[in-house]
Structure formats: structure tokens, C-alpha cells
## 1
Amino acid sequence: MDKKEIAFKILSENGLKYTEPRKILIEFLSEDENKHLTPEEIYDKLNPDYPNLGIATVYRNLQNFENLGIVQRLNLGDGVSRFELAELVEDVHQHHHLVCINCDKLIEVKGDLLGELEEKIENLYDFKIIDHDLKFYGYCGECEEKKDR
Amino acid sequence: MDKKEIAFKILSENGLKYTEPRKILIEFLSEDENKHLTPEEIYDKLNPDYPNLGIATVYRNLQNFENLGIVQRLNLGDGVSRFELAELVEDVHQHHHLVCINCDKLIEVKGDLLGELEEKIENLYDFKIIDHDLKFYGYCGECEEKKDR
DNA sequence: TTCCTTGCAAACTTTTTGCAGCCTT
DNA sequence: AAGGCTGCAAAAAGTTTGCAAGGAA
């Protein structure tokens, strides 16, 4: 069972209907991993093939998907939400992002790097950690090179 | 020299004029640490005392201050920017935030917890890290307690 | 048949911008 | 005096909502 199928299963388990727009969106997101597109970008890319898909439907379903944990919303601080299909398999491995402050490239860091840190913080601050959000800002290899010249 | 004075020094060093709105804003932010207010909240709080301060001026100057490193913009994922006076002293110590997903309380974690992790990532991903953004989401002590009952 | 879902358009919210006049330098 | 800065209002950008028609269960 791949991600797409898991996603549809989650939808039906939660009483959400299997509609054309949802099919299109999940299909698109699963083909399009690591792109971290905004709702508008998703809408624009789908529009040629599905001209009567409305942008409100894109927003509404991304919101639905987020509520169900099917997608993850990224906030890179540029005033827009970006979405990616969430890890839906058993061994959920967290990942983090490197954002290039010169060319805006987005690089993924695989692996949960914060396990022991979270334990420390939970004890120190009396806080039960459920999730985290970690982003590094800096220069990617290419941009760093250009800077030196 | 306290934060406020350092902030004004940075302004003048960068050719920004010493105007009434900037004075009001920096004064307010330095009195109001750890509040993490939105531009609108800042505007509303200042409005009774300074009724002709415009909200555009608040936005413009928060942006200016951010560019100069005087304030830090927080993005908690609720669709608004929040601001706090940055650490302006020599030994800049990073801090991170714990966000309670039940009551929205914001707790600060002092200390830069990511030093060695950053080194690893820089080598592994050929990426020069300049800054990072780390937030933990979970339940604060109070809300965790309430959940059990 | 029921009622969830959609597309469209309008509304809302947050942030940015244009402009004429004012104020710091 | 010069040019940056302000307040106001309008515009822009991103997102949400109301509603009637359509489609899945």
C-alpha cells in the first residue's frame, strides 16, 4: 500500500467522500514530493489539465488533509503556506529543512535529530513535546561558492 | 547600554532617522518582552496613547527593525507575524520556543541547543548555516495535567 | 434521497504601497 | 533645504466563506 492509497484510506475512515478534486490533489502531491508548493502553485499547475477545479477547493482540501495528517504544512516565513505529503508509513521519520537565503532552494534533512534534546527540554520545562519544527537558514553550496568570487 | 539604546544606535548607524514612531515602538517592545505581539496588537496597545500612529508605520518599522536585526519575527503558523526585541548583546544566545497546542502559551528555552548539530549538517549537506528556527509543539504543564482528568 | 462537496464570487485578514505633507538631519 | 518618514487610504496578497448546483454514498 503506497502513500496515495493510505491517504485515500484515511479519507474514507474519516467519512470524507472520494471525490474527483481529492483524487487529483492527492495524486498530484504524491507525484510531486519535495516540491513544497503553495496552494496557488498547486492550483496553477493543475489548472491546464483540470480547468474547473477551483482554488477554494484546493485550499479547503489541503486544510482537510492537514487535519487528518495526510499533508504537512510548511511555514518558511515568506507569508505563504507550503504543503507536502506527510510520512504515512509506520516508522515516521521526521525531517527538517535547509532554506537557502540567497536562492530560496529547499533541501531536506532526513532523520529526527532532536530526540535526546526533546527529552532534556521536557524535563527542564515541564512540557510534553508532541512535535517540532526545525529550519536552518543559510547558503547552499552553490550560493556560498558564488559569494566568494 | 541597554537594549533600547543599542537599538537606537543601530538605527543611526544605518542612517535611519530618530523619529517619534520609532522611539515609541522600541520603547514599547523593550518594556514588553516575551509578549510576542502581532503588529495589530502592538498598534492597538499603542493607539490609546498615540492615536495618530498609523498601522502602516508599525508594519514598516517592524520590517526595518527586522532587517537590522533589532527585532526577531516569529512565525507560529497561525497566519500572523509576531515580534520580539532581539538579543542585542555581545554573546548572542539563541533561544527557542515551546508552543502549547492547547492554550497557545509560549515558553522560551534559553541557550543555543543546536551548535554541534549544525556542524554535522553543514558538512553533510554542503550548506553554510547562518541561522535557525526551532519550535516545539506540545502541552504545557497545566494543560497536560488537565488532560489526565 | 441525503447531505457532503464543489465552483464561483464575494468577503475577510494581513500586509504593502502611493502620495502629499511633515520632520529629522 | 533635502530627503527620509509619516498617516491615510487604497491596493495587494493570501485565505476563507456563502450559496446554489452537483455528485457520492
## 2
Amino acid sequence: MGTSQKEGLASSSDAAPIHRFYSRTTWIEGAAEEQLDLVSRLAGVSHVAAFPDLHPGKYGPVGSAILADRIYPQLIGNDIGCGMSLFALDLPARKLRLDKAAQKIRVLEEPWHGDPGACLAADGLPTDLHPVALGTIGGGNHFCELQELGSLSDDCLLAGTDIRKGDLMLLVHSGSRSLGMAVFGTVLESFSGLDLDSTVGRTYLAAHNDAVRWASLNRRLIAERAARALRSDLRLVADAPHNLIEEHDDGLLHRKGAAKADIPLVPLAGSRDALSYLLVPKADRPEALASLAHGSGRKYDRRSMAGRAGTTRSDRDGLIRTSFGGHVICEDRQFLIEEAPNAYKDPNQVLDDLRTSDLAQSVATLKPLLTFKKAVNRELAAARRDKHGRLKDRRAKR
DNA sequence: ATGTTC
């Protein structure tokens, strides 16, 4: 927990109710519970929902939804609009050559060469809104994953959709890149919250809303780039942001790593070596604040992963393969280790908690075939070579 | 999370 939050956040004596949608045996870090208690005491907070993927964040617990009478930008942080978008490909799994697809999807390592102005305008955004990063995935836990849809025992729910067992899907996890960071940078010290009726509050929320739409467009462009490389059409199945503020009748709803669930279908991402799930949220659970878990949730923070994954050569080699016979494309070894599957909780426990809490039904499994995370930035690599006359060896720094 | 960490 940052000291800045303890010092800077206004707190009231009476805490808002916290609804926890996980069992007593679910693994939740103590620091996350402390953050949950802290946000429940923030001035103007009326309700908090906590999901089984809960884990500590920089300013607040990731995996929570918070209803307040004012705007708390630091609860959302820099990746405004980050989320998961799921697309169905018009390409049957039986026609897929995984090794060839792995080469084709590398188109995502290049900058996007489309027409940003036209895409931004078509989505009602200013044509000059941060075009430079559009169509790119970014780093950290962001990815573009090719998956095969599998059915569950209850086929009735799938029958209500236009997706079927064996369909190839693209799940894109990305956000607003450096745009959201710039927007957050304008209100960094707003620890006591912003009034919606103030100029700074309105200005922030307008810029935030643009970043949310920019992030959604970004995920679609990433999927379109991948689909084009695979010579396939695609259609949107779900667009589920999990890091944003929404104006609701009863207040400002902050989702911090909690998926927007007032939509028909919500993807629940597993780690790259676990199944993801497609969920149908239950509509009649107001205490869940129209939200759901957004994934497995981290078990270990990034810094502590150095000794937990990639310590031996065979372990490192294993990081680019999955137990489903799939591949991981990520040339940044740091990311491979920080985002190793064992950095995450068991998505099946998260799913169990959501079902036990009666928040959602699962309608399909999503098996990872190809996970594109990040390729080496060639320009940056070249710059480093020029400066040092050789490639930096990260190991030498330790 | 981030044209990051010279």
C-alpha cells in the first residue's frame, strides 16, 4: 500500500458495506483485504463489491467495484478503459495450421499502418486522439490470444448465441496505452476525489470516457490485424472493459479490475496455461454492482516472480509452450517470467466462486492455442545496440 | 500499466 494513499485519501468513520463474492477458503492476500477496508471508508463511497480475483493494486484492490458520489481517478489508475474483447473468427479450427498461424500473427509486432483518423472518426472520437499507439497491444498482462471454443454440459445457453463448439476465437486484453496514462497524469493528486459538477471533474470524466472508447477501438483494431493475417473475417462477441468509471443512477461506479457485467456475455480470462471461460452474468444481483471477476487474479506480484519462474533453462523453454499444445509468442523474457502461469490464481476457483455466489453461468470454455504477448521492439533494440555497441544483457544487472 | 529502467 502506498503511503500517499494513507496520507492523502479522505476517510470517513462509517464504512460502506462490502459484498464479498468468494468463499472463506479462497486465497486472498491480506493486503488486498486491507485495501478493500480502506476504500470502503473513503468519503462518499456507498457500496463495495469484491470478486474472487481480488489482489492488491497500487492505489486500491484490483478485482473490486466501488460506488461513490464522486470521482476517484486513482482507483482506476493509468490504464483507463483496459478490458477484454472477444471475437469469433470465420475460420474453422480444423483448417488452422498452428505453426503457420504463429508466424502470421507476428504482424502484431509491427506498428499499425492503418488509417487512425478514419477509425477514430467512425467511433465518434477526435481524429487526432493519440493515433500513435493505436492498434498495439502494449506490455504487462496484455495479450492477443487465439482460442478454440469448447462446449460445456449445458448446451442450451450456447444455443442462444451465434457461436459454436470448435469455433476459433480471438481474446484481446489491452487498454488505452499511453493515452490513459496521460489522462491520469492530469489528476494525479486528486486523492480526496473529484466532484462531478466541478470543471476538473467534468474534464477528467470526458477525457476518461474518450480513453475508454479509444481502448475498445484499440482492441478491435488488434483483433482485425490478427484476423486479416489469418485470412479470416471476424465478429465481436463481447466487449468487456474492467477498468473504468461509469455514471449510474445511484452514483459513480468505479470498476477496478472488475468486468462490466451488464452485457450478455463476459469473458473470464485464465492464465495463458489455463482455460478461459465465457460467462453469462445473472441480471438480478444489484449488490454485485453490474460487475464480475475479470480473470484469475494475480497470486504473486511481478517483482516476486524472478525466483518463481524461468529459473532453469528447461523452465524458461516451458514458458513458451502450454499444456494444451499451444505456443506463447513473447520475446521479452522479463514479461514471460512476470506473467508466468504460476503468477496467477486458479481460474477454476474463481469460476467456482462466481457460480456459488450465483453471479454467472459459464457457457463455454476457451482453450488457448496461440498467445501473442510482445515481440522485441526492433527500433528500441537497435537504439540500445548503437548506444552500447552490443545488446544489453539483463542478467548482468542483477 | 508506461516510447519503462541512462
## 3
Amino acid sequence: MADKVTSFDVARLAGVSQSAVSRVFTPGASASAATRDKVTKAAEELGYRPNTLARAMITGKSRVIGVVVAYLENQFYPMALEYLDRALKERGYHILLFMAQNDGNVGQIVEELMSYQVDGIITASVDMSNDIAKRCDDAGIPVVMFNRGQETGTLAQVTSNNIEGGRTVAHFLASGGHRKIAHVSGWQGSSTGLDRMRGFVDGLKDHGVEPVAIEDGRYSQDDAAIIARKLCGTSDRPDAIFVGNDHMAFAVMDCLRFELGLSVPEDVSIVGYDDVPIAAWPAYDLTTIRQPINKMVTATVEILLARIEQGAASERIQIPGPLKIRGSARKPKGFST
Amino acid sequence: MADKVTSFDVARLAGVSQSAVSRVFTPGASASAATRDKVTKAAEELGYRPNTLARAMITGKSRVIGVVVAYLENQFYPMALEYLDRALKERGYHILLFMAQNDGNVGQIVEELMSYQVDGIITASVDMSNDIAKRCDDAGIPVVMFNRGQETGTLAQVTSNNIEGGRTVAHFLASGGHRKIAHVSGWQGSSTGLDRMRGFVDGLKDHGVEPVAIEDGRYSQDDAAIIARKLCGTSDRPDAIFVGNDHMAFAVMDCLRFELGLSVPEDVSIVGYDDVPIAAWPAYDLTTIRQPINKMVTATVEILLARIEQGAASERIQIPGPLKIRGSARKPKGFST
DNA sequence: ATGAAAGCGCTAACAT
DNA sequence: ATGTTAGCGCTTTCAT
């Protein structure tokens, strides 16, 4: 018993034309106070709300943004989603959600994205970001990649400064007197994973230190735990590990503490990347690079809507992420970034 | 550029009528192999995809489900979202996401849900579930409340058996020899919070035990920590605490261990509710009632789509949640539910 | 400022 | 099996 109320019904009741009703409900349109009043009353009485779909068909704007995410178990993603929704809602847009399965059917997602007439797309750290982004971009739908980039190319992207972040961690760890330093990297098929690693290795070099091990944790807790076990299961273990994101860092810490009986940071210092809320929980108290998620989201939305609404060009933005020092890693005396 | 390709363009190129094109892209429609072939080729060539919006306008079905969630920081929600998306996608539906801010503008959300012509709505443990649900239901849009219910009423809802869950915890704790048992409840303005509490108190009564304290944690980590501090800051502390959900339980454990210097479970046993993935992390190793999220989601989608597609009646379902015994609470010898 | 009329891209009778 | 013809509910010229 519902939404069968159309602008015609309202028009009839208000004693005006249907287009008058439309005007009253269209932000920029002109209508006399009298008309406006009659229409508003009639609409109220009938419980009328404009059909967004019909409007979208005509204007060619759905005011819907397709957001593609994967693996919500890593707290970084739900946080991004929450901020994204807030920023988008402020501008009058809504999120149509797409979960990229790991066995990712990129083709299908792209099809669906397009058939729903989304005005734009945000891919959030999805493995196949590049793939999806390129195809949608080719199809003329504005895309921006959130927290993932590509080495070369012109697609819009927003990341933190991963290279600089990795370098900062290196500096911090080396200054703390660590010399046997390992790295459980983020997925080496991703720009983020690669950049953090490169910056880290580079930064270490500045201190004349070479990492004792680098292993690809692929952003998986299971993989990270396995690596931690291997790395620290011998007496020849590293005295510090930089882990490619917080999500893996938690698994690494748990493995060291509860499986290997080691202390963090006394036996091994751990540093992560992201600064998700859990990192601040006392059980982990993780020293980590803070990805300024709020700023990143704001920039993402800004860029995307500029493209959609003003046809602006694709931008590629990097936002610096400061080191958040907590208790999971030995602190250098008088450390400064 | 892009998506300006319509079924007419395809029709022209394929040398058939526009409706022939429509039929080829409509699952149940009839078209000869020849036509189907020509159309498919032409469509391919032009990069045509049907406009879902236009289709939705005619059929009156958008194949979009509005999902209202809040507070993604509690891992239970993102998990629900992930399962929901999977189950819905399987049936050809998509999720339009609505974040309910705490300062919740229920009215606006309802407006938006309706104007987007969603076929149905799922509210996931949102504070104002009842409010939103009732209004949408009144408007004729099928709604099911996920993990939240109402005492009386006919709105569709899916929860775990919270009363039974609370009772199970009581039985477990009492059997473990605990006698000074406290409860940090879920929000007492919610059915889930209330039911778990009631079941718990009831179950304790069976053992002739009365809770030493019951405080409303309102599903907030901050509130829970404050309560834990108050409860366990004295020598007269409880020897066990049942916390209304895992999310709060983590905060309680952290407070006891890192602030108060207590041991869990040696000094105080902790039991939670939900069994989110983090509960299994060694740092917490939380004994908790497992909300069978997968089954709950399946049921939710089932009920909703039955209403949408077959006009079925609203169902109210409760799914039993077993106790998952881990290490955060002393184990009774030979315990059986 | 307002009404009439022409579609947006598609599906669903209705014919053939 | 296929084409023709109405619309779905709305925005947007175009007159008035």
C-alpha cells in the first residue's frame, strides 16, 4: 500500500500541473510561493516522494557511487567505508556496494557497475583495482583508486606516501639500535606493498643496514603468522620486524607472544602500517604508520566528484602518514622523524 | 566515450527491432537462436549493457536492497555486511548502503530509502531499527531486522536466541564455580541487550546465584571499560563477568589486564557474545556465544526475498547460538550445555 | 510563473 | 518468434 503516489496525483490534489510539482521538488527551479505551498501540502498529505530512478533516467545522473571493497576483516576497510559514506552523503551521493571476492570476477563487477548507471566508482584497496579501474575508465565512468595505485598511468588514485612511510619506519627502527631487521611485506603485487617495502629497504640503507629477511605476507594473517614462525622460531631471530599492515602485525605479535613465548618489544620490536583502531588497544599497543584515512577519504571524494561534476582531470594524490609511536617497538632516545 | 549505447543502436546494427534486443537481454524471454546471435554480436561490438534504471522503472523492481548499518568498528557489522552481500548477490540483488549516524536522522534515511525505490530493507543491529523498520513497513516496503527485535509486533526479524545464550553463559559460569558474577550488559534499550541479560539472570537463578552487579555498557567500549574499572578496582571484585558482546569484552579484558594488573581467567573469568573473528585471536582467546552469522544472514535474505518476490508473511526467527569455549574463562569439569 | 508536450531507455501487452 | 505500440515517473524545452 505504498509508493504508487506520483507527481500527477499530487498535481491533481494541489490543482496544478504535473510540471509544477516537479519544479517544487527540483532544487533550482522556479515556483511561486503559492504553488510551492499547495504542492508541499498535497505531497505531504499523500506521502509523495519523487522517484529517484525516474529522475536519474532523465538527468543521466544517478547520484550513486559504486564502491568496490574486499576483505572487510581487515579493519581498515570498514573504517574507510564508514568515512566514505559520510563524505559522499554530505554531497548527496549514496554507495552501491560491491564486494570483490578473492576469486574475483572482475568482468561481472564491471558489468554490474555500468548497468546500474553509477556516476562514479571508488575501488578501495582491492587486489584487482587496476583491472576494474581501467575498464571502467575506458567506459567513461570516473574512477578513483583508494589506497592503491599503479606505477605508471593516469588513473586517479589516492594513497598515503607509502615510500616515505616505509622509510620512516626504517629510520625509527635503526635509530632504536636494531640491526637484525626483517620485513613481512604487504602483497608484493600491490603498489602499497611494494612501496612500503622499497622505502623501508632504502631507509635502512641510509643507516648502513640490510634487512635480514623480506617475505611476502600478502596481507594475509595466516601467511604472516607462518612467516613469523619461520623467522623467529630459531635463536638467530631478528630483533625487529616491520609488518606491511596492522592486520598482519596483530597476527605476528600473537604468534611471537603466544606461540613462541617471546616478548614484544623486549625480544622483538614490531611496527605496523595503517593505525586502525585496534592498534591502539592495550593488548597490542602497536607502533605504526598512521594512514590518515579521513584525509584520504576526503581527497578521494573530492577528486571523484570534481571529475563527475566538472569533468576535472584525474589526480594522483599522496598524503603523508606520520609514525604513531606506541609500545610495540623499542623507542630510540630523542627520536625525530 | 561511453554508455550512450541504447537498445535502439543495437537493434539497428543487428537489423532487428528494439524489442528483440530487449528480449535477448531478458532472462525469461523468447528469441530465436539467429536473433539472439545477431543481437549478442551487435551488443558486444557496441559495448552495450541494458540500463538497469530504465528496467527498474517499468518492472517496479530495482533489485536493490537498502542495508542500514551503524558503527562498523564492532567487527560483527562488517562481517554481516560481507555475508549479506554474498547472499544477496547470489539472488541477483545489490546493496545500497546507509550508515545510521548515532545522532540518527531516521526520517532522512527513510526518505532516501524510499526515493531510491529499494525493493526491500535490512536493518543491521541499528539503534533505531524499530523506528526505521516500522516506517518503511508502513510504507509497504518489506523490512527485516537483523540481529535486533522488538518485544511485541509483527515486523520480520532474525536474531540468535539471546535469552538461551544468556542462560548458557550463566550455566557455564556457575558450573565453573563462580559465585561473584557481574554482567556488563548490551544496550538495555535493545532487545538483544535485554534478552541476553534476562536469560543470564534467569540462568543464574537456577544455580541459586544472584549477580553481584549489572551495568549497562551500551555496546560501547568506553562505557564498558569504565564499568570494568569500577567493578574490579576494589578488592571486592567479581570473579567472573559476562559481557554483552565481544566488542565490549575486549575492552573489559584490556582494562583488567593492562590497567588493573589482573589475570584473565585466573583472577576474573570473561565471557562475551558474538564470536567475531578477533575473539579467536590468541591475545583474547575469548570464550563467547557464537552468533551463527552465516545462518542468520541466510535466513534474513530468505525471509526478505520471500516477502518481496512471493509476498510471503513476516517471519520472526531465532537461531540458537552455541557456546564457544576458549581460554578467557575458567572451564567447569565435564561441562555440558 | 506555469502548463503542454516530448521524451529518458526500457519492458510488456498486443498483434501478426 | 518478432515487430508495434504504449507507457513507467519524471525533467525539460517550449509556449503562453
## 4
Amino acid sequence: MLKTIFRFGLIIAALLILFELSKASLFIPELSSDVIIALSGAVFVGLGIYVGLKLRKERIVEVTAPVAIDHEQVKTLGLSEREMEVLQLIAEGFSNKEVAEKLFLSESTIKTHVSNLFVKLDVKRRAQAVTKAKALRIIHA
Amino acid sequence: MLKTIFRFGLIIAALLILFELSKASLFIPELSSDVIIALSGAVFVGLGIYVGLKLRKERIVEVTAPVAIDHEQVKTLGLSEREMEVLQLIAEGFSNKEVAEKLFLSESTIKTHVSNLFVKLDVKRRAQAVTKAKALRIIHA
DNA sequence: ACTATTTTGGTACTAAAGTATGAGTGCTAA
DNA sequence: TTAGCACTCATACTTTAGTACCAAAATAGT
């Protein structure tokens, strides 16, 4: 979020600078208004393309190989055994209720585990947790 | 491809029109040069962002394609282009709302796509869809 | 030009998922 | 023995997800 604010701040700053430059240019008699508008238009388009491409970057995904589980990573994140079990089942697409049944626990307990997992993995949703867990190689592909 | 050419044609046409409009505006005394430049700048930035986002689609394939997507599988399942886009974003852990924002669509539309995806993939939940889609190699790991 | 499909969007629900908070149990290391 | 941690479960919400049904556009293909 801060990053986004920073970027937009930069963009606004750039806009202001260009704006001032354009104004100044208007008083240089050698340049016709045509040229000025064309130039500023080109610059603004470039700026827009830059912004558009920046927006793209957030979509790039890490690709992971189907390899062994990184137990170091698990330790570092402080994931408990139960949490790992729950995470694995969630990654297989089971609902909280189904996970609860498989592990002979109440749905409440699963929700607690899942919430704790989200904090430790720094995610907001289970699908995100699954993707991150696979990227970190803490569950089977 | 024709679509792309057509769109870029439109963009160029729009640029020319705006260009002419901007020139004409210079001779309307009510509008200060400040306003004109600001407006045209904003419009050009918008155009640039549009172009940038269009470029994005082609690029992301290059960046995230180390694991080949099984296009045969995609055809067999009858998944449309839009559905694939939505599926990919869901696999990255985004909520329906977030996907809607990224694709400039309403959440309703995303829900429709997601529901259709579930039928085609024969799953009940998004996490399950993600796991199955990865297993079938129809999205990037 | 005319279909078939895709894409988009809406309303109205129901069902899951997720958050916040509290609390009891049991195990273990200081 | 007690402080800390893992595990369990509950209540009470709020928020997303998902289903069902419908319908208007935009596109693609013939």
C-alpha cells in the first residue's frame, strides 16, 4: 500500500513538473503550439505506458519446482504440526468442515488454525495461502 | 490480431482528434493554457495506461511461461480466454473483488466466470479449482 | 448478414470463510 | 511449580464465496 502511494506520488510529481515545463515552453517563440502539444502528449503517453506496465508487475508469479518440503522454512515461519496438517488439506481443496471431519476436530478448531496460518504466512485468503505455501515449498505440490 | 490492429487504429485516430481539438482550444480565450495542457495531459496519460495494459497481456506470457500450459486440455475442457484469465488470478489468491478490479469488470461478472469454471472443472471451491488446474497444467504453477 | 458463443452484468439468496475474543487442557522447559 | 506453548472449542459477528436465474451487449465464425 505504501508502495502504491509512493508510486502515485511520483507520478503526480512528474505530472506537475511536466505541467510547469509545458507552461514555460509556451513563452518560447521558436516553438509552435503544435510542437508543444505533440511533445507533451507524447510524454504523457509514455508516462501512462509506464504506469500501465507497473500495474502489470504485480501479476507475475513465482514458478516452483515439485520438490521436497523445506523444513527449514517451516521452522522459520513457526508453523506447528497441526497447522501443517490443516494447510495440506486446505491445499487439496477441502472446506473447513471437511478438514474438521478428516482430523476429528470441530470446525471452530480448524478456523482457529487457519486464522493462525494466515497470520504466519501473511496472507488473507486460503487460495493465497496455498499458492504461497507451494511457492515456499512447505507443502506438496 | 485484427482486433489489436483495429484498436491501435482507434487509439491513433483518437490521438489525432485530440491533437486537433487541443490546437483549436488554444484560440478559445475562455480557456487558459493551463487548463488545456492539464486536460490534454490527463487524456494522454489515460491513453498511455490503456496501451500499457494492453501490452501487459503479451508480456506476461513470456515472463511466466517456463512450465508449458496444456492448451489441448484447455480446449477439451472448453475454457474461454476470460475464464482462463480469471482462473489464473484466482490461483494467485485474489478475491473476486480484486480480480474484478484488475480486469476492470464487476464482481458479478467474476462470479459468473468462476461459477462456470467450477462446472467445467468439476469442483466446488476455488482452492480445489486451483489445485486441479495446476494438476491439469492449465495455469502457471 | 446471421447465428452461436463469449462476455458482461444484475438481483436475491444460501453457504462458507474469516475475525475477534475468551477460555480450558495438557505438556514441557526453566 | 509455573510460565509458555500447542491444541482444543465456543460464541458472535462481518465478509467473501458460491448458486440460481435472467438478460443484454459484443464477437467470432460461417
